[in-house]
Design a protein that fits this description.
The protein is an alpha/beta fold. The chain has helices at 49-57, 76-90, 102-105, 114-118, 156-161, and strands spanning 3-8, 17-21, 64-68, 93-97, 123-126, 150-153, 170-174, 180-184. The protein has a 6-stranded mixed beta sheet. A two-stranded antiparallel ribbon has the order 7-8. The chain binds iron/sulfur cluster. Residues 25, 27-29, 32, 34, 37, 69-71, 99, 128-129 line the site of iron/sulfur cluster.
């Protein structure tokens, strides 16, 4: 993985959520916020499915996990396993961002284990980021960077169980070692 934060409310409904950024993405969207995650040969942190699930579950406040990118579906088999473990052991749900469209993920050229991973996901947020379709209005296209991306509720119960969400926000997480992570879809710009 290329990044991890605890207790996020900005990366999908039903928080607090653990957010895991995977490493490696081939979509090369113009204006991507995380181009450092594109290199598929670069290893930032190697972690087993069991250990990642344990890390997510170690925070009792977590109600789910969000996988973001990079492109999570390049590691679909391992992330399916993580999602299965956290659901079975703690009842935690899974939100997943992907640059693929849903149709690509169920098609003949889908990445390895895509269907296995889809079966574990509650909410899929699909499609490449399209810079010209970005809105600076925080209430526009919730949890998404551009309006072409879709919220696909693969487990409809999850939709009805969650509280209303008023608008996109951007969070600033400061880790114990001083690292600062900006995350979310609030449309704000920061200088550090
Ligand atoms: S899919 Fe996401 S991580 Fe990959 S290039 Fe597009 S915006 Fe960036």
């Amino acid at each position: 993985m290329s990044g991890y934060v605890e207790e996020s409310l900005a990366n999908g409904p039903g928080g607090p959520r653990a957010v895991i950024w995977t490493q490696g993405c081939q979509h090369a969207c113009k204006g991507c916020q995380n181009p450092q995650t594109w290199d598929t040969d670069k290893v930032i942190e190697l972690i087993s499915a069991d250990d990642l699930a344990a890390k997510i579950m170690s925070n009792p406040n977590h109600r789910g996990a969000t996988f973001s990118g990079g492109e999570p579906f390049l590691q679909a088999r391992g992330l399916a396993q993580v999602s299965r473990i956290i659901r079975e052991k703690k009842g935690l749900n899974t939100v997943c961002y992907t640059g693929f469209t849903y149709e690509e993920l169920i098609g003949t050229r889908a990445p390895d284990a895509a269907l296995e991973f889809l079966a574990e996901i509650d909410l899929l947020i699909d499609g490449r980021y399209v810079e010209s379709l970005k809105s600076s209005d925080p209430s526009a296209h919730l949890w998404r960077g551009s309006s072409n991306q879709r919220l696909i509720w693969l487990k409809p119960d999850f939709l009805y169980a969650e509280r209303p969400f008023q608008g996109n926000v951007t969070e600033i997480h400061v880790s114990p070692n001083g690292a600062v992570v900006f995350t979310g879809f609030g449309g704000q710009e920061f200088q550090v």
